[in-house]
Write a structure and sequence with these properties.
5 helices; elongated
C-alpha cells in the first residue's frame, strides 16, 4: 500500500515536471520588453544611415531569400542579396542622412510571441548631391520575426498617400 501511494505521488511529480518544462517561451513573454526590442530594431533599420553603420543595418534585416521590401517607387526587393545591391547608393558620399522621425508607431505580436508587425508614419530626411531626397508622411508597415533571440525584419512596405 505504501509502495503504491509512493509510486502514485512520484508519477504525479514526474508528469507535473514534464508538463511545466514543456511550456513555450511565449508563456514568459514580457510584452513591454519585447516592444522595446522591436522598436529598437525598427529604428535601427532607418537610423543606421546617419553614421553609415551598414553592419547595424544588416543585423536587423533577415539575411535570406524570404526578405521582401516594397518601396513607393514600385520597386520590390526580393531577398537579402537583392537588398544588398542598394549598398552602393546608401554608402555613396553623395548620400547624406539628415534625420528621421517615426510617428504613431503601433506594434503588435502573434500569440506565440515570435512574430511582430508594425505600422507608423515616417519622415526620412536626406540629401543626394546636396539636394533634398526626402520621404515625408510615408506610411511604413513591416513584419519582424524573432530568430536566435534577435528580432529581424522579414518584410517592409513603404507608400505615399495619394492626394
Amino acid at each position: 500500500m505504501k509502495r503504491t501511494k509512493f509510486n502514485f505521488i512520484l508519477g504525479f511529480i514526474l508528469i507535473f515536471a514534464f508538463l511545466t518544462s514543456c511550456q513555450r517561451d511565449g508563456d514568459h513573454f514580457n510584452l513591454e520588453r519585447e516592444k522595446q526590442l522591436v522598436e529598437e530594431t525598427i529604428r535601427s533599420s532607418i537610423g543606421w544611415a546617419k553614421n553609415k553603420d551598414i553592419d547595424l543595418l544588416y543585423s536587423v534585416i533577415a539575411n535570406d531569400t524570404d526578405y521582401v521590401e516594397v518601396d513607393p517607387q514600385d520597386r520590390v526587393v526580393r531577398g537579402f542579396q537583392d537588398f544588398k545591391r542598394t549598398e552602393n547608393f546608401w554608402m555613396s558620399t553623395d548620400f547624406k542622412a539628415i534625420r528621421y522621425e517615426i510617428r504613431d508607431l503601433k506594434i503588435s505580436f502573434s500569440r506565440s510571441g515570435d512574430v511582430a508587425w508594425f505600422f507608423c508614419m515616417l519622415d526620412d530626411i536626406n540629401e543626394w548631391k546636396g539636394q533634398p531626397a526626402n520621404w515625408e508622411n510615408t506610411r511604413w508597415t513591416g513584419v519582424l520575426e524573432r530568430r536566435d533571440s534577435n528580432w529581424v525584419i522579414v518584410q517592409m512596405h513603404f507608400s505615399f498617400a495619394s492626394r
